[in-house]
Amino acid sequence: MRHDHHGAETDGHPGGSPVARDFARTPLIVSWETTQACGLECDHCRAEAQPERDPDELTTGEARTVIDQVASFGHPAPVLVFSGGDPLERPDLFELLDYADERGLPTAVTPAPTGNLTRDVVERFAEAGVRRMALSLDGPDADSHDTFRGESGSYERIQRAAEWAREAGLSIQINTTVTATTVTGLPGIAEHVSRLGAAMWEVFFLVPTGRGADLDQLSPTEADEVLAWLYRHQREVPYRVITVEAPQYRRVAREIDGDVTVGSTRAGSGFVFVSHRGRVYPSGFLPESAGSVREQSLVELYRDAPLFERLRDPETFSGPCGDCEYRDLCGGSRSRAHAATGDPFGSDPLCPLVAE
After folding, report:
1. Mean pLDDT of all residues in the chain?
2. 169-182 burial string, b = 16+ CB within 10 Å, else e?
3. How many domains does the chain have?
4. What is the rounded average pLDDT of the residues 142-170?
5. Does residue 6 have a pLDDT over 50?
6. Domain span at residue 284?
7. Measured CA distances, 262 to 61, 285, 356 (Å)
8. CA Rg, the chain, in Å?
9. Could you tell me which residues belong to the region Disordered (predicted)?
10. pLDDT digits (tens, 9 = 90+) for 117-152
11. How far apart are alpha carbons 240 and 13 in whole angstroms?
12. Which of 18, 135, 183, 256 has the most CB atoms at less than 10 Å from its CB?
């Protein structure tokens, strides 16, 4: 992912355009939590997923309206990610994927590795025009991954799903959550990313929210060491490495290689999250809502809501993040700042520059 110096970005995400986009106007990613229903009980779950669907989920008609709103952002269109919970718990999932494709939207899907994820389902994703399927891998072997995911057999399902995707011509990415427990497995997971033929490795740095609040985080120094390892690793592999909730990756890359750019998202600036009930958030890890798609257009909320406008203005950040020389380049995780201080405009404690 390449950045210019004015908040615009060109991207290598599925369906992305080489045209630079202004993040004050159009996000790179719209992540829609289609449902909280999921058959897994993962230790880190942001959504605190439940076995059953919420009766107040967006209806099929409301979901189609959201798709229309995403399309109205214009060109280049955001990538619409169908996330969860497990999106396969929604019986209208393929109807909605088809509709998004008809509206010209690039789509991605993040199915949970349960019995819902079959070869037929993966083939239907490809037929529906899905640009990429994300699979979560949080350990280099079945024991470590299945323990983290709380489900025996999850590791094997991911291996099979990746093979089915290869046969169907469907691009995949691997998502990994970094905690003090999973960090030692990163080199082994990286080998899997290569072997499975993934186009991208998306590395999430834990935000202590939902069930993830009970997990141990890295120290700031450890986080910087991991980010440096990830940056050096991505120079040697065919897939892209991006980070989530760790915009410090941009700073670390500059410290290693000078004027380089890497991919890392920040809440409310290029990224917007729509909950299963239609509430609009800067991130799924930042529980402050700007409004609801049931009452106001997603485009208006993203562009004009005071919460989003301020999140895109690092000059309004307080503490070390607000004074940092890397404020515009990095800005810190707004989600982690909120989790740690109750203030999304505070400082991100995962950064060693904050701890000094």
Report:
1. 90
2. ebbbbbbbbbbebb
3. 1
4. 93
5. no
6. 27-355
7. 38, 22, 25
8. 19
9. 1-21
10. 999 999 999 999 999 999 999 999 999 999 888 888
11. 10
12. 135
